Amino acid sequence: TTGAVTLDSGYGNTGSCKSEITFIDGEKGILRYRGYSIEELAEKVSFEEVAYLVIWGELPNQEQLAEFQAKLAKYAIVDEGVKTILSGFPRSAHPMAMLGAVMAAFGSYYETTGDSEEDILRIIAGMNSLAAYIYRYRRGLPYVYPASGLSYAGQFLHQMWGEPTGEPKVNSVVEQALNKLLILHADHEQNCSASTVRMVGSAHASLYASISAGVGALSGPLHGGANQAVLEMLEEIQNDGGDFEKYVGLAKDKESGFRLMGFGHRVYKNFDPRAKILKSACDDVLEDLGVDDPLLDIAKKLEKVALEDEFFVKRKLYPNVDFYSGIIYRALNIPTEMFTVMFALGRVPGWIAQWHEMRNDPTGRIHRPRQIYTGATERSVQPIEER
Ligand code: SDX
């Protein structure tokens, strides 16, 4: 049980729901997918295994994993028509805007029910290819088709950086780091974007429309867009002579409207367990890749000052998943504007699992929160000459 939360079957006015997918204890900093701790999953399995676990409830055995990987490789080939959608965007359009729009139309290329296993595979594998296509399109580069025998992370790296004619070139350190990042983002119970996917799906909109809406919600800088906002904040501090204490001071001044990106969380009132894993992964990945990123030094100084400052301590504002992830993505040479797309690639199994859980709930109803009306009491229309 999750204690004080008043649970309501399906959706009622509480806006909360029952779920068997992800457990979070915000006070203790615990995160588990289907009962497995994030710490163990991040170290021991692939993202494909986590996606399978989150969606179907159990870790796959070798035969199930091999079959799942073969299907993902097949569905990584997306309809050529999506290139026409992409070509309609200005190259400067944000990758999340492009991803959300393409996902809304993606199902139209296929004769499916919209909620079958095939749709699940098309969305997971297809989004991976679409993310790489978006990267290539924004740079005017030729698209790179999927290659066989690659992991999910490897397939993305191949299609993002591979040469149209070359063999897959995937660096194992980069692939392993991306695999861990994807696992850490796979689900997070009723966060803003997952709730959006549930809300849209509760109207019996298609899985594609619901995922598209989830992409939109995730793009917000208070949510998934924070990973890009963290890097932009660290770069601003670096360009401002590295004066990180000035920015801590700004964050404490309500008038400034400034927030330290990557800090705080609605649920975690202790360290976000994902941030802990990413903080140590940061050091390992940068060392393995021989990257010396001054932004990491600024991040660590910022974290230290904030964790000792009364304003942050009193409000239990700790680094969250977005605080360190951007530094790793940057070390992997993934451009800043693609960071939130990477978050979406990791999160899509969670969105799919939660959408199906909601749609399979026999007591499920359309999500229709009520309100407390604070507007004008009843009044009559005055003729316009008297208004
Ligand atoms: C994600 O929900 C999920 O699970 C999300 C996520 C997932 O996996 O799906 O974990 C991913 O979205 C992580 C969060 C990424 N966002 C950021 O890093 C943006 C910066 N953080 C904040 O804007 C904020 O902390 C939120 C949005 C994350 C949480 O907002 P809350 O719970 O609504 O907190 P709040 O806005 O009510 O703030 C409480 C107090 C306020 O001060 P007081 O009014 O009490 O004086 O804390 C202050 C806030 O001003 N505060 C901050 C702050 N975050 C909260 N002050 C400075 N810097 C911050 N980052």
TrEMBL record:
<keyword id="KW-0816">Tricarboxylic acid cycle</keyword>
<dbReference type="InterPro" id="IPR019810">
    <property type="entry name" value="Citrate_synthase_AS"/>
</dbReference>
<dbReference type="InterPro" id="IPR024176">
    <property type="entry name" value="Citrate_synthase_bac-typ"/>
</dbReference>
<feature type="active site">
    <location>
        <position position="322"/>
    </location>
</feature>
<keyword id="KW-0012">Acyltransferase</keyword>
<dbReference type="GO" id="GO:0006099">
    <property type="term" value="P:tricarboxylic acid cycle"/>
</dbReference>
<dbReference type="InterPro" id="IPR016142">
    <property type="entry name" value="Citrate_synth-like_lrg_a-sub"/>
</dbReference>
<dbReference type="Pfam" id="PF00285">
    <property type="entry name" value="Citrate_synt"/>
</dbReference>
<dbReference type="GO" id="GO:0036440">
    <property type="term" value="F:citrate synthase activity"/>
</dbReference>
<dbReference type="InterPro" id="IPR010953">
    <property type="entry name" value="Citrate_synthase_typ-I"/>
</dbReference>
<comment type="similarity">
    <text>Belongs to the citrate synthase family.</text>
</comment>
<protein>
    <recommendedName>
        <fullName>Citrate synthase</fullName>
    </recommendedName>
</protein>
<dbReference type="InterPro" id="IPR036969">
    <property type="entry name" value="Citrate_synthase_sf"/>
</dbReference>
<keyword id="KW-0808">Transferase</keyword>
<dbReference type="InterPro" id="IPR002020">
    <property type="entry name" value="Citrate_synthase"/>
</dbReference>
<dbReference type="GO" id="GO:0005737">
    <property type="term" value="C:cytoplasm"/>
</dbReference>
<feature type="active site">
    <location>
        <position position="265"/>
    </location>
</feature>
<comment type="pathway">
    <text>Carbohydrate metabolism; tricarboxylic acid cycle; isocitrate from oxaloacetate: step 1/2.</text>
</comment>
<dbReference type="InterPro" id="IPR016143">
    <property type="entry name" value="Citrate_synth-like_sm_a-sub"/>
</dbReference>
